[in-house]
Amino acid sequence: MIRLGSVIAEFEADFLAQFRHRLSFEQLRALSALRDCRSAASPMMQVQCSDCAHHQLVPHSCGHRLCPHCQHHESQQWLERQMQRLVPADYFLLTFTLPAEWRGLAAAHVDVVFDSLMRCGWETVLRFSQNDRQLQGTPGAIAVLHTHSRRLDFHPHVHLVVSAAAVDAATRRWRCKRRGKNGTYLFNEKAMAKVFRAKMLAAIEAAGIGLPASYPRQWVAHCQSVGSGEKALIYLGRCLYRGVIREQDIVACEDGQVSFRYRNAQTGKSERRTLSRVNFLWLILQHVLPKGFRRARNFGFLHANCKRLIGLLHLLLRFDPSRFKPPRKERPAMLCSCCGAVVAIVRTWIRPTSSVVVAVVPRIGVAI
């Protein structure tokens, strides 16, 4: 397996010589974090064996959300929280996508455009739910921002897992969409795309940002039934904290080029893409989000402030969300390199020095 950090370490100088003027502070910080993750250049922690009392130094993980092998535990925790908020209703996966003509605007004003993308997506869902004859209320939604396609191109879009049920706060009523012969129908895709487009135009103009010279009149919105919502959340949770590429998918790094594989969404087959070394690193770093930007948000009655309401719904509807148990991967214990016994952490964040001898402790996918 080719480590992303080793690719960065080998090609960083050439990359910075060509792209430094285009990089933000967050992108430079991400480049440094991914390069030093679990290496001799990262801060160390001291561990002690429980049997032979052997001491050794182990490098910390970087913890950056773009890193492909960090924050697996955080992803698990997020998924468990969302599972506990599920209610007895049909769920739909809604996707709102920015047109290709807006990608340059999004790259230049990341924080404003991405925030508007998530907010306008939710406002569109809320408007349709309040106007729907069967719902007439506020639904619940879990939104996750994606910035890339399967080929890792810059392709901003937001996914919303939306309940086909709503709460009417004025009358204190709980309403669900009725199932027809062909299942449950939520909202019309073309109508949602029109409303979403209008809201995005208004949001960008209100922010004082100039609109592109030309853009399509028809935008794209998708609405897909996902049953109880469990599988859709697992899919979103899998992509939330693991960067944009798996290290297992980096298949070659030679002759100044990097090749990675991806699955073609149209054919379902695995394909390979090859780029020059600097273009590959730029492809990765263009997906760095601004510091503090939340790419996963809860809206409506699934908001974090509505825990009492969700608990009341579970009680009144006699629904036990604990039956939805996401696949759990416990953090494997770190083992001593001498005797194989479990080691304990006795000191953390030790500054690395040139005289430090770094030990690689056996562990699988542990982020510390």
From TrEMBL:
UniProt cross-references to Pfam families, sorted A to Z: Y2_Tnp, Zn_Tnp_IS91
Domain Transposase zinc-binding: 8-98
Signal peptide: none
GO BP field: DNA transposition
Residues of the Transposase IS801/IS1294 domain: 140-307
Gene Ontology molecular function terms on file: DNA binding; transposase activity
Entry protein name: Putative transposase
Organism (species): Accumulibacter regalis
